[in-house]
Specification:
Elements lengths: L25 E6 L3 H5 L1 H12 L4 E6 L3 H9 L6 E4 L6 E2 L4 E6 L4 H9 L5 E4 L20 H7 L7 H15 L4 E5 L6 H15 L4 H10 E2 L3 E4 L7 H11 L7 E4 L3 E4 L16 E2 L3 H25 L5 H5 L2 H15 L4
Parallel strand pairs: 1-2, 1-6, 2-5, 3-10, 6-7, 7-8, 11-12
Antiparallel strand pairs: 3-4, 9-11
Helix pairs in contact: 4-6, 7-8, 10-12
Length: 339
Amino acid sequence: MISPVALSLKSVSSEKLLLKNRPIKTGIVHIGLGNFHRAHLAVYTAIAMDKFGGNWGICAYSMRNEKLVSAMRAQDNLYSVVEIGPDTDSAVVPAIHTRTLVGAEDLPELISEIANPDSKIVSLTVTESGYYISQGAKGLDFSHPDIINDLSGNTPKTIYGILMKSLAKRIELHAEPITILSCDNVASNGSQCRQLFLEFLAKADGNTSLMDFVSTHVSFPNSMVDRIVPGTESEHLEMSLQRLGVSDSIPVPAEKFTMWALEDNFVAGRPHWEAGGAIFTTEVEKFEVMKLRLLNGAHSLLAYLGALSGHQTIPQSRFDPLIERALRKVLFEEYLPSL
């Protein structure tokens, strides 16, 4: 049996590419390479560049996922986003990544990418735990070993240590402004990231000039992100193969629905993300509340009622007539009136 051709720049069909002209320059450096980034920010950016151009290629860094980075490099940094749902058979290839980096060995390259004047945005998907928030003090958890490590000047293990070294080099080279964009499910994520980073810098010795730079030349827009992106399973490999016609070892399954609401606060410019449906607003917190109540609340209710009814999965619960009626009643009579 002949093995299918692997996904690459030569093998992929141009009609499957979201971005037809491969980016040459990096404009965004992303920390936290994973499925969500690949199905969300990467997709919005590829659509924006395809329609409006610009130098917004993405250099993506993973703290530890060597397997994913190795697979992306083997496929010319390409992968597919496979939509899952009853009314879609879409599979697209964003083709937006210029480089992929991983681990401590690539940290010097990451720092150089962030310090490069071509880089205008550093985006983050590191999960809530990656911000090291002290639940008691509601500030930075200075007792965490990773924070202690970074404040001691060792090889960085946190976003704060990485950003401190990267921005210090940026100041040394040219001091051009830059945006730090959190794409994590953290309330007021941009404001929190700014506060926590400044707390970190205040503890680090000799960083008053860096604190001044962050205060005057770095923006931290708040954002609300939403797209259901499950883990990749064998069935998604087969779906990708059938839809692309070539073999992708790292496809990303994703629900068709996607949403992104964010503040238009980018001191060094940004892609035309609205081309992909991004919403620029001064009221991100209202979108956060809407998501928590309508999406998370509904999902929780499906899980609770489904478990009590003996269902094994959310889709089984969703198509149970009794549960559907209960969910619609709660959505329209309790959740929506509270917004």
